[in-house]
Every structure is written in structure tokens, then in C-alpha cells.
Amino acid sequence: MGLRMKFNLVLLLAFAIGLALAAYLSDQMLKQNAREEVLQNARIMIESALGARAYTAEHVKPLLTLQMKRQFLPQTVSAYAATQQFKALRAKFPEYTYKEAVLNPTNPNDRASDWEADIIREFRNNPDHKELTVERDTPTGRMLNLARPLGIYDEGCLSCHGKIEDAPKTMTDIYGVNNGFGWKLGEIVGAQVVTVPMSLPLERARQTFTTFMMLLGGVFLLLLVLLNILLHFVVIRPVVKMASIATDVSMGKPDVPEYVRAGKDEISSLSQSFNRMRLSLENAMKMLGE
Question: Which phi and psi angles does 253 have, rounded to 5°?
Fold first, then answer.
């Protein structure tokens, strides 16, 4: 096995190890960054919903209090306002969803699904948990769900969801009296659940990863070519030349040309030492011939 082959094998081994390490680290980092991006978008969506809820409770509901005695207006409900806001958003971004999932809702549309019920029970069992992140695979791709607990911290909520007899008749006429009652102050009854698709950020991460690995591979190939050229002209060619001269001298050929490589590197020093040895050998052979 020649020097060039050994040199290239060592380089290939080093590249393979470095490439595998770079691939693993960059893949993990890019996926983590993609997940953080999705999580940030989900948090912005929830904060937007909280803003809609607060505005409705503070500014809209007081204006419609008198009308509520004659007709139930869902526009006075904070959850309704937040849901409607995101309903408009879904017209352009259908994969983004917002739901206030409740175990015992007044409106059947708000009833928690099985996996949403698991999130609510997690919040109930661990009251100190203020946020929960769940990733799910769906027919449309991987989704990230960010959930926050919905609790009864305002006694005003119990006017509609406490005792049935205390609820506005205009509301029970619409939704009935079978669901959405019996809530207690301080009880976690549901969860705000935001769903954000991860497909686009993950695809961007994959494209970035592919581009990075291709560039890394291209840089290695360029280095490999340049190092091989350097190896050929700086090491291999001078060594082959000195080996050829040494063979001629050992065979007793006359007038073997000398070879001294210009420079101050190790190969140049070797060529100078080799040339002195060749001259000494030629002089010794001439003395023996006399």
C-alpha cells in the first residue's frame, strides 16, 4: 500500500467520523430550533386568545348585560370571542387551531376529546403545571399542541356554570340543563389547546441540514484534492526521484545526476543529505576502484 493510499485512508476515516458527529449534532440542533420556533408561535397564539378573552370580559360583556336578560348573546362569553377570533385565522391557516376543551361544557362543541381529556386530567393531578406540550402524528403531518389550564378563579363564572337554578334562562333555553353546571371555584375544568403544524419548520430544518452536509462534503473533497496535490509535489515526487537515483547508484551506473530540492523544509533537508551520501558513496567506490 503506497503512501498516497495510506494518507487518503486516514483522511477518509477522519472525515467519516467528523461527518457523522457533525450530522448528529447539526440534526439535533436544527430540529430543536424548529421545535422552539413552533412553540414560540403557539405561545403567541395563546397570548392572543387571552387578550381576546380579557377584552371581551372587560369591555364587551358590560355593554350587553341588559340584552342578556332578554336574549342570550354568546358574544359576551370570553371563550366564544377567543374561538371566533381563531376561526377567522383558520380561513387562511386551516392547520392552526385553538380550542378551549372542557370536560363538562355548556356547548357540546367544546367537549374535550380523549387526548385533550388526558391533558386536563394532567393539569388536575398536577396543579403546579402551568403549561404542557404534546407532539402528535396526524394524517396531515406532525403537530405540536400547547396547552394551558382553564380554571374557575372568578366567582362571576359560577353565575352561569354553578347551580342550574342560578343560570340565565336565556342560556338554558339554548343549551339545556344537562351540561356545563356544577363547576366549583378553583376547579380546573378544561384547557386552552393550541395546535400548530410542525411540517414546515421541520422541512426547513431538513433542507438546511441537507445544504449544510453538502457544503461540508464539498469542502472535504476540495481539501482532499488540494492535500493530494500538495502531497504529490512536496513529498511523493521528491521521494520517488531520490529512490530512482538511489537505485541507479546501487546498480553502479555512471554519471548519475544529483538531485537537491530547493527549499528549507524537511524534504529539502533530506534531499541535501541524500545527495551528500551519494557523493560520498561515489567517492568511496572510486577509491576502491583505484
Answer: -70, 140
Q: Is 33 helix (H, G, I), strand (E, B) or coil?
A: helix
| DSSP-based three-state secondary structure for 136 | strand
pTM of the model: 0.70
- Single out the residue of 222, 224, 215 nearest to residue 11, CA to CA: 224
The whole-angstrom separation of Cα 13 and Cα 79 is 60
Domains of the chain, each with CATH number or no CATH = 3-12+212-289 (no CATH), 26-205 (3.30.450)
Burial grade of 75 (CB within 10 A; 0-12, 13-18, 19 or more): middle
pLDDT of residue 289: 57
Q: What's the count of helices (H) and strands (E) in the chain, helices before strands?
A: 9, 4
Least confident of 20-24, 188-192, 234-238: 234-238
Q: How many CB atoms lie within 10 A of CB 135?
A: 11
Average pLDDT over residues 56-76: 78
By C-alpha distance, which of 24, 42, 27 is closest to 135?
42
Local structure of residue 77 (DSSP, 8 states): -
